[in-house]
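Following up on my earlier message about uridine-5'-diphosphate-glucuronic acid. Here are the inputs again, as you asked, copied directly from the submission form:
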Amino acid sequence: MRITMIGAGYVGLVSGVCFADFGHDVTCVDNIESKVESLRQGVIPIFEPGLEDLVRANRKGGRLHFTTDLAGAVSNADVVFIAVGTPSRRGDGHADLSYVYAAARDIAKAMTGFTVVVTKSTVPVGTGDEVERIIREERPDADFAVVSNPEFLREGAAIADFKRPDRIVIGSQDERASEVMREVYRPLYLNAAPLFFCDRRTSELIKYAGNAFLAMKITFINEMADLCEKVGADVQKVAKGIGMDKRIGDKFLHAGPGYGGSCFPKDTMALVKTAQDHDSPIRLIETTVAVNDTRKRAMARKVIAACGGSVRDKKIALLGLTFKPNTDDMRDAPSLSIVQALQDNGANIHAYDPEGMDVAKDMMPDVTFGADAYSIAEGADVLVLVTEWDAFRALDLRRLKPLMAQPVLVDLRNVYPPDEVRRHGFVYHGIGRRE
Ligand code: NAD
Ligand code: UGA
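Thanks, got it. Here's what our run produced:
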């Protein structure tokens, strides 16, 4: 199969490289020249574990190509995936589909022979219809079908998620296109990943429903954590206790500073907007969005309380800035709101993140960035663990304590056992645990 991937970001690059690794001939197109040039040199513009080796191996195997020439890449393709961004539209929270529609127009102009155009980007219900309309308008003669194939990979575990998915959802009403999609995913379903076929609109909604449900599950346990703090219970054990019920499941019940990232925040908001537009509001998700938004700044209040009620002129050391570990993605990271709220209250922020600092430097003015956990802890009034990178899981507490002005640890990811931290002479504050 000759596959063209429009957009070489987190999803397009990972999907393209994995398809190549399964033996397809893949061309990844991006309109940022510097990105394409560095990919050609084997330099990966994002941090994603395992990706660099996979790119190198498939480049060597001659199955993976990078280009800015969309028309050239589309003209020979059997399948063209649209994997461009669909960020929140400024002002109203709807998904901004301008990149998807622009790509559709360019694809239309270039395609030859029967071509399957696949929306892999997360797009609201009805986008496939509009993509079809655009292509038809641009090229009334074209032989094509538009399919929805949402992506469910997580950053930081993207290659494993792509290669061993729980399911592959394909929204197609065209038998020829369905056959092509079966061929594209053959290596995966031979590997036991179920293909789930449905109509295009249903497929588009499955993606939003899935992300919204997971966001709601996280928000549920976060609110449960707040209650645990008030009534003297332990949210880790509540999560374990309910998670053992197979109907509930034990995943996505880890209480923390609120969900962030490039997808849950924008996708929950876009679903809320779609539902309101169709006079069918989803109040559970409206509430999820509101609760999660306020939670991030509430985490700053937790830090302020741990510092005795004021952080003015105090030194706060933050461990981890990205929205989760094993990524350099800072989009909608809870750290952004936490830093802003602490700075609003007069704090001096020092921070360290293993992979996110290059991006964070442009987003966080007046933050001092350090070389590791110990250097930022020097003279600090509180150490705040924001993102649970492995590198922060076994900190040398004996070494840390004498470095700090006050030995206080606010653990927003419940990484440390409170008793052990206290034994080392620290004051410990977790999430939803007995203080
Ligand atoms: P991204 O911003 O990392 O990448 C998008 C890329 O598309 C950019 O490199 C951009 O330069 C390129 N691009 C935009 N318009 C183009 C055009 N006309 N021609 C060529 N290139 C173009 O975005 P992402 O995180 O990969 O997300 C892409 C889509 O996948 C979104 O809809 C997102 O919701 C969805 N998604 C993302 C993830 C994730 O983990 N990031 C997971 C599942 C689904
Ligand atoms: C999420 C989904 O998990 C993917 O299935 C989906 O494809 C993707 O969004 C998308 O549509 O882009 P991702 O955002 O990469 O993936 O990361 P997650 O692991 O889901 O974490 C999202 C946020 O929730 C992070 O801020 C994380 O810290 C938080 N989280 C997650 C919790 O606070 N508790 C949990 O138990 C799980």
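One observation from looking it over: The longest strand covers residues 2-6. Hope that helps, and feel free to reply on this thread.
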